[in-house]
Design goal:
By secondary structure, this protein is α+β, with helices and mostly antiparallel strands. It is built from ten helices and eight strands. The protein folds into two domains: about 170 residues, no CATH class; about 60 residues, Rna Polymerase Sigma Factor, Chain: A (Orthogonal Bundle), CATH 1.10.1740. A hairpin with a 5-residue loop joins β7 and β8. The longest helix has 18 residues.
């Protein structure tokens, strides 16, 4: 046997694509999330953002990953009751305010990326709002503008990361569930690094964006210490947040930066 022609040919079962679509109704989101999960898509690979998940619960500012962990929301119980049962099945649910768009609920890796972008592309945009963040994540500007307009109007974005050989299947699933403005991107969303954290660049965006440099160092040291003991990343993350909350206070921007340690 020879390897001719195989070296430059990617394996479509390992190359990932992001399939995204807009949905008009909140009820459609519940249905499409459950259908994706039933199809074997990991909840860690499903993202949803929208404005109208919290019509009965007014929330201002950010709900950060720290709040999710320390508040016991990680399992989705409280988010399930506030934002809809299916949304509570996803990871990284958070709330953020986006200029020119309003308060959004964002879940999954897209939510984490947007939380990380909140002090970057979004905050620095001169009228672009979500468009800047979507473009930074690899979406064409014209499609990003359409998505922002429809989210701003109260509709919902669903994005799913899947192997390239499953993009057609997932596109059909989203379309059959009522999805519109379909888009397939070769870019997948940034993720936090697993295992020991060597420096702040390895922190997930939503964690890094809510910690000062001192707090980042404290988080990393305590995360690595607990991970070496337990081998449990979730436990290590919660321990690191506990220590940060003991040693720092949030400033007016919601950043954990004010040390409570006496010298």
């Amino acid at each position: 046997m020879t390897a001719t022609g195989t070296a430059s040919t990617p394996n479509l079962s390992t190359v990932e694509r992001t399939v995204s679509a807009i949905f008009k109704q909140r009820e459609q989101i519940d249905n499409v999330i459950r259908r994706l999960l039933d199809r074997g898509i990991s909840r860690d690979h499903i993202s949803v953002i929208g404005k109208n998940f919290h019509s009965e619960t007014k929330i201002a500012g950010f709900i950060t990953k720290r709040d999710v962990i320390l508040g016991g929301l990680r399992q989705g119980g409280i988010f399930g009751s506030i934002f809809g049962s299916a949304l509570g099945l996803l990871t990284g649910v958070g709330v953020l305010f986006v200029p020119f768009v309003g308060t959004l609920v964002a879940a999954g890796p897209l939510g984490a990326a947007l939380l990380g972008a909140a002090t970057g592309a979004i905050a620095g945009s001169a009228g672009a709002g979500l468009v800047s963040a979507f473009v930074a994540l690899g979406m064409p500007e014209d499609k990003a503008a359409v998505y922002q307009t429809r989210i701003e109007a109260g509709e919902f974005l669903v994005a799913v990361e899947v192997p390239a050989d499953k993009t057609g299947e997932i596109q059909l699933l989203l379309e059959s569930a009522g999805g519109e403005e379909m888009h397939i991107s070769e870019t997948t969303l940034p993720r936090g690094r697993s295992g020991q954290i060597e420096d702040p660049s390895h922190l997930s965006p939503e964690i890094r964006s809510h910690l000062s440099e001192d707090a980042q160092r404290t988080f990393i040291a305590n995360y690595n210490e607990e991970l070496s003991k337990s081998g449990d990343e979730g436990k290590a993350e919660q321990h690191a947040w506990d220590v940060v909350c003991q040693q720092f206070e949030q400033d007016e921007n919601g950043i954990w930066s004010k040390s409570t340690m006496t010298v």
